[in-house]
Amino acid sequence: MPEDKNGRLEYQAQSPDESALVSAARNFGFVFKHRTPNTITIEIKGKIEEYELLSILDFNNVRKRMSVIVRRNNKILLLCKGADNVIYDRLGPDQIELKARTQEHLNKFAGEGLRTLVLAERYLDDEFFSGWRQRQQEAALSMDGREDKLGAIYEEIECDMMLVGVTAIEDKLQDGVPQTIANLQMAGIKIWVLTGDKQETAINIGYSCQLLTDELVDVFVVDGVTLDEVEQQLRKFKESIKIINTFHPGGVYHNNIATANGGNSSTVTIENLRHNAAPPAISVVTFSAECDQIFDGGEKGATGASTTATDIEENTGFAIVINGHSLVHCLSPELEDRFLDVASNCKAVICCRVTPLQKAMVIELIKRAKNAVTLAIGDGANDVSMIKAAHIGVGISGQEGMQAVLASDYSIAQFRYLERLLLVHGRWSYYRMCKFLRYFFYKNFAFTLCHFWFAFFCGFSAQTVFDPMFISVYNLFYTSLPVLALGVFEQDVSDKNSLEYPKLYTPGLTNALFNTTEFIRSVLHGIFSSLVLFLIPYGTYKDGVSPEGYVLSDHMLLGSVVATILIIDNTAQIALDTSYWTVFNHIMVWGSVVTYFVLDYFYNYVIGGPYVGSLTQAMKEPTFWFTTLISVLMLMVPVMAFRFYFVDVYPSLSDKVRLKQRMAQIRSRQSTDVLRTPSARRARRSLRSGYAFAHQEGFGRLITSGKIMRKLPQDFAFPLGLGSSRKQHSINHQDSLNHSNNSHKHQQQVHLPGSSNGGDASPRAPCQDLDTINL
Ligand SMILES: Nc1ncnc2c1ncn2[C@@H]1O[C@H](COP(=O)(O)OP(=O)(O)OP(=O)(O)O)[C@@H](O)[C@H]1O
Ligand SMILES: [Mg+2]
């Protein structure tokens, strides 16, 4: 539809291709002026021409073409545009030379990454057309199988056409696509591109978004027409992979050894990388982070998650490009295993000329056969089925309309925001959820099992150790909000660092933060806590008498004391777990303890609960305070020792990044608020000497000066203070190894072909080496 905007014609089109074409024609002096339901008016070099519009043969993704039938000067003309292979199959005879020349142009355009459309025309005689129209109207009115019937009728008329020519439209990548893909790959996510474009265009896009690189050993192209051909091609590729793996043990084979995965997985699918301001989005990317299955025969080693990611990224191996007609066979039950086997060995998978249904089928296959978590991202109506099929559907709102957005779970405005969605929000969400769960199990086991131990001392009489009111509101009032605040606000590293170190994402892929082991650990921790919580007060108060001669060994007093220590322990525990303190966390955590005492008083004294006076009496005696202190120390010291040991000796990437973040904070705080006081100067001096030391010996000795120790969060101060320089050496060694790999990679990235096509001149270099975290 042409629209007059301030004297200039603007076009509203169903597809951005079309608006680009009519705009270009307008700029060359062929203006699409006006349109009514039955007429089209154009202006050719100032001369008005009017066409009668007889019929529109709509586009769909199966037909991959569309036509209009128009009449002018009593001649009926069919004009058709569509995908090259589809139009070529429907051309009349005797155009061999024209076809060959056009094919050359097509290849050239597609090789440059342009979206091509082939145009053709056919003059129709009146009689044939009226007969056809009759049939078309009948088919259009039929109640069942209308689509198929119309398809067959369209087929009748869209044949014997004359080739007119070919158009090519630049479909620019959106900003930041190569960078986003690189970072997501580094995060251990596997990417598949599913596009309706032709093979050459798809490969070119693959290069410009750096999914395909010159580092690849081989790019396999599957274009077989029959099942046998496709099978043979797949078999051949499998052989090549085997041979190369044998001869390049440092390459892909290396991955086989090092990939470690808990058997779970995650796959992600993506669509549309194109620029909003440019013609339409065409690419679909599928991600899969199935580390253990990606590499054939990969042994499950004992390596950690970050190692897995390193190995994935080092896999320069293979890429596979599959054509739509071959994909049909690849998705058949006979070949799907073989197909997945080869695809899993490839760093990049690109499927071209794929129909919307096939996009969904690919995802279904990955979900089913790989047991992977999939994410699909796309912007067009042709991505809707894929977005619906994937576990997580992301729609990009852009020029291709809102269908994808409406079908999706998340919608974003640009492809590059996916990085933040996954690496920041996705990661935080997982981290929060796991911490929440671990704490939740812990606190409930610690609470519940006190009754179990008490059963041994109350003759299994089913008497409860706590006040029934306490039991009812323990989870509701005293311990729910702190863990909720943790579940909402917690973050181990900042968003900036999450993006800077994509490998921080990998624990999620391997379910490292909450799994059976973690569950058992929480339960054991709960059991241990409940033992201390019950037995220490029990031992203390068993035959207890106060100095004034009051008997302290009664059930209610014991119950009150255990409950109080339990609440204090829960609070201390969540305070230790919280690494990101907001004002809400403070209110919830400390407020919970205060609430406990206030409610206990209110319930017993004001409402008149049965435990009136028990806690008050206990609190009057030093015994209570010592018991509380000893119990809390016994509960917290082992936990802290255990955590500090691991943070210090086996720091995860997240620990290291947190430390770096913390140091940066201290530095900026040092330089701003307390600059001029003598103590600040001393602190800075010690910080500096700490740094000097840290550079030589790792960060182990950094915290030896008291000033800094107070500034670090508790879970860092101790481990660092206790740090052994021996271990730090090994960490540094590992870092330097990573560094050498990484600098090698960066060097290679400079030479990537098509990086200039990315529309992303100064991408943020993916920073994934651990040694940047050096102090
Ligand atoms: N409006 C149209 N008119 C005629 N042909 C079209 C039109 N839109 C697309 N085509 C042809 O049909 C093919 C398939 O289109 P489809 O929408 O499935 O995928 P795409 O837009 O090329 O890619 P993507 O899957 O990345 O969106 C296109 O490559 C193009 O050749
Ligand atoms: Mg499209």
UniProtKB/TrEMBL annotation:
Coiled coil: none
Location of the P-type ATPase C-terminal domain: 405-651
Protein name, entry field: Phospholipid-transporting ATPase
Subcellular location: Membrane
Residues engaged in binding Mg(2+): 379, 383
Enzyme class per UniProt: translocase
SUPFAM superfamilies membership: Calcium ATPase, transmembrane domain M, HAD-like, Metal cation-transporting ATPase, ATP-binding domain N
TM annotation in the entry: 440-462, 468-489, 519-538, 550-568, 580-603, 623-646
Biased composition (Polar residues): 731-741
UniProt-listed GO biological process terms: Golgi organization; phospholipid translocation
Superkingdom of the organism of origin: Eukaryota
Chain spans, region Disordered: 727-775
The reaction(s) this protein catalyses: ATP + H2O + phospholipidSide 1 = ADP + phosphate + phospholipidSide 2
CC cofactor: Mg(2+)
UniProt record similarity statement: Belongs to the cation transport ATPase (P-type) (TC 3.A.3) family. Type IV subfamily.
Pfam families, alphabetized: Cation_ATPase, PhoLip_ATPase_C
Membrane topology type: Multi-pass membrane protein
Keywords: ATP-binding, Magnesium, Membrane, Metal-binding, Nucleotide-binding, Phosphoprotein, Translocase, Transmembrane, Transmembrane helix
Residues that coordinate or bind ATP: 18, 59, 81, 115, 195-197, 353, 359, 382-383
Single GO cellular component term: trans-Golgi network
UniProt GO MF annotations: ATP binding; ATP hydrolysis activity; ATPase-coupled intramembrane lipid transporter activity; magnesium ion binding
EC number: 7.6.2.1
